[in-house]
Each structure stands twice: as structure tokens, then as C-alpha cells.
Amino acid sequence: GERDTTDPLTGMEDTAPVPKDAGDEDTSSSKSSRWIYLVAAVPVIAIVMLTILPIGKDDAPTAQGEAAVASDTDSNEPSPSSRVPLDEALRALGLPPAPNSCAALPAEYEQLARAAALLQGGTLGRAIDGHVRESDRNAARLLAGSKIASAEGVVLLARARLLTGDFPGALQAAERAAASCPGLASAHGLVGSARVALKQFDEAAPNLQKALELASDYRDARFDLAVVRMTQDQARAAIELLEVLQKEAPDYPEIDLALGHALFMSKDDERAVAAYRKATVSSSQPGKVYLVLGFALARQGKANEANASFCKAAELGEKRAAEMCKAPSPR
Questions:
Q1: In DSSP terms, which residues pair with 162 in a beta bridge?
Q2: What is the pLDDT of residues 225-257, one digit of tens each?
Q3: Are the C-beta atoms of residues 118 and 139 closer than 8 Å to each other?
Q4: Distances (CA, A) of 239 to 4, 5, 59, 82, 162
């Protein structure tokens, strides 16, 4: 018979789709409207904000499975070192520690540690752009087939869904975890990140703020809240968030590009240019960086430097820059 997909934490049916294989094509209209670009004062300026999860239809244990997990927990006390691999993998993902009352059950340690290891290196920006890694799909499948009863485990499922492009499913799982464990920072953070991916920017802000109240060093929540502030034309607030993050983690993905964009929005062109110049080296998409650098230089009145930047962007494949790149006048 069919497996029970009722969620033990809420009693609700889980409706998330099955993860797609690498060859599957996304023919939905959502792909073209995905949040890839954050547009600033000049409409054609578009930058990729890469951050920090289609997933299983049976992400939660059946009632019998949950009882079995509870029984195992009662009869087998974990050794002090048994969740060390899981803790290390979660730290590598940048997820804040869970309160003891919300932590993974001993029966979940091995599967969650494996899934967390597979998710390392994935970013929301690439998922939004439709580029999903096979390791993220494998993590999603692993979690979909596991019996997850803890809020910490459901959070990892939410992250897997986020990285595989199932943003509604990620939101569903993260909200479930947050309702089950209000003190779980990563649950609130992933609610916010999923809402950002769904372009629900205003709705994302309270969740991301809550995540930072619970864990001030939660870097993904800080970055995503800065993105939200930029969409709300609150450039100064975004700068404050990003400067803290840059100080804590100077190698955080796309931090220079994001900070440059916030500075450009605040009309601090000198610092914006400096940040963009750093981003030409640190960003994974330098063509877009040279494009926005060109606009910042043009606003400073540096026409020749701006043109050189546009031409470099065009050379790197940025089509929008090609029409802005002008050949030097003959002497």
C-alpha cells in the first residue's frame, strides 16, 4: 500500500514534490521569474545574490516509525561522541546549534550527518538560477526516505529543499520546524530564506530578524536580511548588516558584490567602486560585477573607465554590456 505522508509534528499531509533527476527539465514559468537579480536605482543594473533547499513526498515518519524512534531512544542512550560527525557537518553548513529539546534523535544522527555533508558548498543563488548539484539531490532523496521526527532534522530537510529549488516545500518544512521549536534559530532563518527565494521579501524580514535574535552569528540570515533591506530601499540598514558579516567572514560568498550594491544604492560611489573592484576577484560571476562597476564609474563621471568596465563585462559574456561598450575613437 501507499506510505503514510502525514507529518507527525503537525498532523498535516506533506505535499512536496519528488526530487527531479539531473536530466529532468523544468518547464514551469517559475524558472523565468526566479529571484536571481536584485535591481537597484538604475533598472538595468542586476547582480546575483548567492547565499547560503522538488523533494520527497515522505519526509516524515509514519506514526509507527515515530514510535519506533522514540522506543530506540529510550532503550539506547547515545555515547557522548555519537553525534560529533553531525555537529561538525552542521557547523560546516553554518547552521546554529539547536536547543536540546529540539535536537536530532540518536536514531537520526547517521542519516542527518550524511545529508549535511552532501549539502556542503550549495548556495541558494545557484538553486534560484536553476543550477542544482547532484549532491544536493542526493541529500534530498536521503532525507525524503528517512524517518525524521526532530525539529533539527526537519530543518535540514528544509535546507535540502531550498538547495534543490523546491522553495514552497522548503518553506513548508521550515515553518513546521519553527512551530515545533520556536527557539530554533535555523528554522526561522530558513523560513526567511525560503520567502526570499519566493520573492516574499517583506514577509521574510520578521523571520530573519528572529533568527538573528536567537543566533547573532547566523551568517546566512544576516546576508538574506540585507538583501531584504535592499528590496525595501533601506540601503543603510543593508550596509550595516553586510559590514558586520564582512568583518566576521570576509570570504562569505558574494559579500563584496552585495556590499557594493548597497553602497551604490546609498550613492556612496567611492566605496561602492572599491567594493565592486574587490568583487571582480571574489565573485563567482565577474561579468555581472564589471557591469555594475561600469554604472558606478559612470555616475562618478569616469566615462573611459566605465566604458572599459562595460567592455570587460561584454568580453566575459554579459550580453547587456555589449551595447554599452564603445570602441575607442580613432586618433
A1: none
A2: 999 999 999 999 999 999 999 999 999 999 999
A3: yes
A4: 47, 43, 38, 41, 26
Rounded to an integer, what distance in angstroms lies between the CA atom of residue 150 and that of residue 214? 19
Distant-in-sequence, close-in-space partners of 295: CB < 8 Å, separation ≥ 6: 42, 44, 45, 264, 306
Residue 156 and residue 187: Cα distance in Å, rounded? 9
Give the integer Cα–Cα distance in Å for 60 and 14.
8
Rounded Cα–Cα distance for residues 127 and 139 (Å): 14
**Mean pLDDT value across residues 151-164:** 96
pLDDT of residue 82: 87
Q: What is the mean pLDDT of residues 294-317?
A: 96
Alpha-carbon distance of 129 to 326, in angstroms, equals 30
Q: Is 263 exposed, middle or buried (0-12, 13-18, 19+ CB in 10 A)?
A: buried
Cell (9 digits) for 179: 512551530
Q: Residue 221 — very low, low, confident or very high, per pLDDT cuts 50/70/90? A: very high
Instruction: For residue 203, give the nearest of 231, 178, 181, 233 by alpha carbon.
Output: 231
CB 150 within 8 A of CB 104: yes
- Residue 52 is classified by DSSP as -
* CA pair distance 231, 201, nearest whole angstrom: 7
Sign for the CA dihedral angle at 94, 197, 136, 68 comes to positive
Give CA–CA dist 112/253, Å, rounded: 24
